[in-house]
C-alpha cells in the first residue's frame, strides 16, 4: 500500500515547507516554524507580535545524490513583558531541528559526530566527500570536542588513546569515559611518551 508524499516529510518535526526548489545540484527547502508564537528565552513570556524576519541556511542530510539546504525563515518577536530587559528576541527552533547559531541541522550534526568518532579527521573527511557532506577534517574533530561534558567525580573506568598529528613530532590524547561511551577531554598537543600507565 502506498502513501501520499507530503512536503513536511522532508523536514524535521516542527517545521513547515513553503517551497522546494532544485538549484544546480542542491535541493533548497524554504521552511518556517509551524508555531504562530514563540517564548522569550529570558522571561518565558509568549509573544505573537512579529518585529522582523531573517534567514538561516543550515546544511541538512543529502537526498537522492544531491546536497540539501534548508532556508529557515526566522522571526524576531517583541517581548510582551514590561519587566523583561529583552525587548526583541529571535525564535528558537526545537533542538531536534537545529541549535542556536549552528550551521548544520541536528540530524546532520549527529551523523558528523558519529563519523568523526568512528574514523577521526582525514578518513572521515574522505568518506564525507563521497556522502556529499560538506564537512572538513577539523570540523569532525571539533564536533567530538564539543560533545565533551565536564568530567564528573564518579568516573570509574576511563580510557586514554593517542594519535599522531605528525608521526614522531606532534601527538594528541583523547580521554574517554568507557562506561558511558563519552569523550571527556581532548588534549591537543603533547611530547612523545609523556602519558604513563599506572
TrEMBL record:
Coiled coil: none
Annotated Transposase IS204/IS1001/IS1096/IS1165 DDE domain residues: 158-196
Classification via Pfam families: DDE_Tnp_ISL3 (PF01610), Zn_ribbon_ISL3 (PF14690)
Ranges where the Transposase IS204/IS1001/IS1096/IS1165 zinc-finger domain occurs: 38-81
Name under which the protein is recorded: Transposase
Amino acid at each position: 500500500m502506498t502513501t501520499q508524499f507530503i512536503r513536511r516529510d522532508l523536514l524535521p518535526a516542527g517545521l513547515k515547507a513553503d517551497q522546494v526548489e532544485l538549484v544546480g545540484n542542491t535541493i533548497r527547502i524554504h521552511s518556517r516554524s509551524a508555531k504562530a508564537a514563540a517564548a522569550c528565552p529570558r522571561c518565558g513570556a509568549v509573544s505573537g507580535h512579529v518585529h522582523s524576519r531573517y534567514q538561516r541556511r543550515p546544511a541538512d542530510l543529502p537526498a537522492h545524490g544531491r546536497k540539501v539546504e534548508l532556508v529557515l525563515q526566522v522571526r524576531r518577536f517583541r517581548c510582551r513583558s514590561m519587566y523583561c530587559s529583552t525587548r526583541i528576541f529571535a525564535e528558537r527552533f526545537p533542538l531536534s531541528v537545529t541549535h542556536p547559531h549552528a550551521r548544520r541541522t541536528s540530524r546532520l550534526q549527529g551523523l558528523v559526530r558519529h563519523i568523526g568518532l568512528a574514523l577521526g579527521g582525514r578518513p572521515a573527511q574522505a568518506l564525507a566527500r563521497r556522502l556529499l557532506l560538506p564537512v572538513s577534517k577539523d570540523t569532525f574533530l571539533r564536533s567530538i570536542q564539543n560533545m565533551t561534558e565536564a568530567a564528573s567525580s564518579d568516573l570509574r573506568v576511563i580510557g586514554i588513546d593517542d594519535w599522531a598529528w605528525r608521526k614522531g613530532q606532534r601527538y594528541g590524547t583523547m580521554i574517554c569515559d568507557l562506561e558511558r561511551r563519552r569523550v571527556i577531554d581532548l588534549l591537543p598537543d603533547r611530547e612523545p611518551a609523556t602519558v604513563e600507565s599506572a
